Amino acid sequence: MREYLTQSAEETRGLARQVAGKLEAGQFLALVGDLGAGKTTFVQGLAEGLGAIGRVSSPTFVLMHCHSGRVPLCHLDAYRVGSGEELREVGAEEYLEIAVVVVEWADRVPDFGPAEALVVRIAYAQETGPCWKQAEVRGNGAGSSAAAEGMRRIVIEGRGERPAAIVRELDTDDFGN
After folding, report:
1. Fold of 2-169
2. Model-level pTM greater than 0.70?
């Protein structure tokens, strides 16, 4: 498991681009986080890193967007879904072996996807949520004040052999910007 603190949406996308560089078809990513935490921003970075074609936006109302690229990307949103069965009904399982499959709000559909997965938890860097403006950022024992509107705490966990290896390969502080 690795934990990151990103200071902006661009850093969040940069971290995701780094993750994308380790992915291949058949990888499953489960994204978890509050509304507005940055799940779609993370997927945008994955798409950039995978060479995906087309604009990446949240598929909340259509449930699934697929993009071709160096590695195909299938982006699902389970926010309005009651079970994994609804994702299976739109054909999402067909992509599990031929694309990188990413599910936003994956905690709402624990019955969908393989047990072997990268789990990405994204949260506001402080408990006060999206409206706070300043935070004390600590690194290497030194404190510095920073505009914190875009700061996110991102925890990436590998469940299974290959996902755990991907997590071990990630840089701890270079987001590839």
Report:
1. Rossmann fold (3.40.50)
2. yes
